[in-house]
Amino acid sequence: MRHNVARPLHRTHCPLDAGLISALLLSIKRRPRRDARRRYAGVCCEPSIGTHPLPTTHDGSDVRRLVAEHPSPPTTTSRNGGADATRRRAAARGGVSKMALLFYTLYGFAIIFFAGWWFVWLLHLLAIFNGKMKLHKKKTMPPLEVPLPGVSIIKPLTGVDPNLFSNLESFFTMNYPQFELLFCIQDEGDPSIMLVRRLMEKHPLVDARVFVGGCPVGVNPKINNMQPGYEAAKYELILISDSGIRMKEDTLLDMVLTMADDVALVHQMPFACDRKGFPAILEKVYFGTAHARIYLAADFLRINCATGMSALMRKKLLDEVGGIRAFGHYLAEDFFFAKSFEDRGWKIRISSQPAWQNSGLCEVGLFQTRVARWAKLRFAMLPHTMLLEPLSECMLLGALVAWATSFLFQWDAFAVYLLHLLLWFLLDWMLLSVIQNGLLPFNKWEFVVAWTFRECGALYLFLHALWNPTIRWRAGRYRLRWGGTVEVVKPDS
């Protein structure tokens, strides 16, 4: 009788015992993390799994043999877990890459602001140097046998102000041997006609004429008003001078002596006469600091910066391109006068005397409107100035540089900003003193107030000009196009 002896069943998938699992877990180690700086730079550290030499079981069998005999079949869960880990690692790499990109972007901007800061200091120094070298210098008189050329002075007039009579009379009393005054007035009922008639009666020996009505040759009302006077001009040199300009006795002589044989245009840097009141101080501070800095630095670098409020030109060269009527579709005709000459190889020079603005209407609102109008013209003619102009203003540039130096060198941002304001203030005071060439009509405290008001309001005027490109000038409204051309805006549009 055979007895069935129970034999242990051979299990093909028996689980590992607790001791084996513990041994495997204890053998796992994780490599140390890499340097955090390398991780920030975009190097992703993946943990590596390694094992010590595998132990043996209590009965002496090798763990490797047990694992080989009892493999664990792959499961769907483990596959999904691996995919999730891969996605997490990819997301980590992407996050680190974005952080690195942000870091290097900020680093680049900080370098640009810091370099631009030094460039603006260079402009300060160039303006002061150029002002010292060229302004208020006495010209050498030519020999007596060399006659001075005649000058036709075109004066476009619109309306009157309290200082108009004295401003116009300063042209009648200039110390120059041969010139004529051509007064151009658009409307027959303009009260400025009576003032001109009175001056002509008071100074009968001066060659002066009046032209009323203008001639529509373009969109620019100033060109239309001056066209009859330009056609009647009899001398080889043309001086276009705005109504608010006051002349000294030797101003015209200074401009003519600057007109060398290779020069086509002599312009005067805008400045302001000494007048009372905060608006007058504000105007003098602006034209003697922020405006003069760019004007004198541009002149030193031979960049076109001519303004048309007082400019002496060769009539023959204007006639070669069709006269002033050829510039009637521009609102900033002065810039394109100079550009036309430079394109043909002629030079532009600055007079040693600034243009003395002496308008009788001096208000803060009018001043801000005027500055904003000029900014709109620059944006249309030179679009890149929309980026450069705000970065050349004291307050905004100082804030950007304070951040940049803190980011790059860990300097104290507040201390850098205060030092920036102090240096800017001192250099502006020096430049204003150079242009004034004498005692200023206000004290340092008044200068501080006007300077601070101007600098703090610069960003507002910039944004206003950028937001509203339409220009109101005289009795019309104009819309600027890229390149400087202009079109009239109808009242119902």
TrEMBL record:
Pathway: Lipid metabolism; sphingolipid metabolism; Sphingolipid metabolism. It is found in: Golgi apparatus membrane. GO terms for cellular component: Golgi membrane. The chain crosses the membrane at residues 106-129, 386-408, 414-435, 447-467. It is a multi-pass membrane protein. Its EC number is 2.4.1.80. It catalyses: UDP-alpha-D-xylose + an N-acylsphing-4-enine = a beta-D-xylosyl-(1<->1')-N-acylsphing-4-enine + UDP + H(+); N-(9Z-octadecenoyl)-sphing-4-enine + UDP-alpha-D-xylose = beta-D-xylosyl-(1<->1')-N-(9Z-octadecenoyl)-sphing-4-enine + UDP + H(+). GO terms for molecular function: ceramide glucosyltransferase activity. Keywords: Glycosyltransferase, Golgi apparatus, Lipid biosynthesis, Lipid metabolism, Membrane, Transferase, Transmembrane, Transmembrane helix. Belongs to the glycosyltransferase 2 family. This is ceramide glucosyltransferase. It comes from Amblyomma americanum. The lineage of its organism: Eukaryota, Metazoa, Ecdysozoa, Arthropoda, Chelicerata.
